[in-house]
Amino acid sequence: MAVQARTRRQRARVVEVADAAEGVRRIVLEPEHPEHAAPGTHIDVETGNGVGRVRSYSVVRSEDGGRRLTLSVQLSPTSRGGSAAMHRLRVGDELSVTGPLQNFPLAVGAARYVLVAGGIGVTALVAMASALRRRGADYELVLAGRSRAVMAYLDDLAAEHGDRVRIHVDDEGTPLAVDDLVAGIARSSASAATELYMCGPIGLMDAVSQSWAEHGLPAANLRFETFGSSGRHPAEEFLVRLPQLGREITVAPDTSILDALDAAGVETLSDCRKGECGLCLAKVVGATGTVDHRDVFLSESQKERSSSLCLCVSRAAAADGGPAGPAVLSLHLT
Ligand code: FES
């Protein structure tokens, strides 16, 4: 079903816009062909004219059989396209969207669920938490952020889920201690039957994954959504050289390599565009800076070797103390 929805683009009208937190806009859409959006689904949205302006956003709420879909979008400080265009939307505007697409399904029947949201990653977990409450499941919702002002849906979630919510705020001196959280799961009597769902910055998700493995918890019980991920370095402009084609292409801070290549007319392969499937892998034949791997397809040791990268999400950052000017990545497309 998801494949059909992915190929069927449709119009959706903006019927509400409001602030959900500092720098986060809540946008309610009425799609032309309503379809209920299950917990964990997202829609792909064309956020401007031309190639390379498709962004994926979690469906925060699906009401009235999918007639009203709520998204929430964090404004990227470097955005000139995606999130900035979404923040400019007004009631009555129209967008081209897909139907709901499912890459992050909520399983039925776990003894216990732990949902971990970092920052804007909460958007992937709001509907899941509601579904678990309605099912009468045993669950805990862990919300982590830099400060309360930028954490969307905090009050709504606290009101809906009461003492099942744990809030960790960096500037209040209560940051999330990932290892304590995972160690607590490992010590519990339901450890082997606890599922953890997470969405947030890549540093948080890496820390959870590492701790999960160190405590010997089942890998299949750890599930994640990646498109809220940020890299280890701030997004900056860099250059991609393609020696096989004799081309050099600039990648702006708010554009992926894949989108920059598409816009320059260079043919590429891709599917998920979220760093999960590996279809867009390219060989790295040289780099003046650091490769900022933002995918979940390559293993940690492959990322350390950096002999390939995922064009759809990974980037380059100028090395501290390295040559002046933007980083340069030389790639061989396969
Ligand atoms: S398109 Fe799937 S990893 Fe890049």
TrEMBL record:
Residues passing through the membrane, by range: 110-132
Domain of life, source organism: Bacteria
InterPro entries according to UniProt: 2Fe-2S_ferredoxin-like_sf (IPR036010), 2Fe-2S_ferredoxin-type (IPR001041), 2Fe2S_fd_BS (IPR006058), Beta-grasp_dom_sf (IPR012675), Cbr1-like_FAD-bd_dom (IPR008333), FAD-bd_FR_type (IPR017927), FNR_nucleotide-bd (IPR039261), MRET (IPR050415)
A GO molecular-function annotation: oxidoreductase activity
Keywords: 2Fe-2S, Iron, Iron-sulfur, Membrane, Metal-binding, Oxidoreductase, Transmembrane, Transmembrane helix
Needed cofactors: FAD
Domain FAD-binding FR-type: start-end pairs: 7-107
Domain spans labelled 2Fe-2S ferredoxin-type: 236-334
SUPFAM superfamilies: 2Fe-2S ferredoxin-like (SSF54292), Ferredoxin reductase-like, C-terminal NADP-linked domain (SSF52343), Riboflavin synthase domain-like (SSF63380)
Signal peptide (UniProt feature, chain positions): none
Gene3D superfamilies: 3.10.20.30, Nucleotide-binding domain of ferredoxin-NADP reductase (FNR) module, Translation factors
EC number: 1.-.-.-
Pfam families linked: FAD_binding_6, Fer2
Name this protein carries in UniProt: PDR/VanB family oxidoreductase
Organism, scientific name: Streptomonospora wellingtoniae
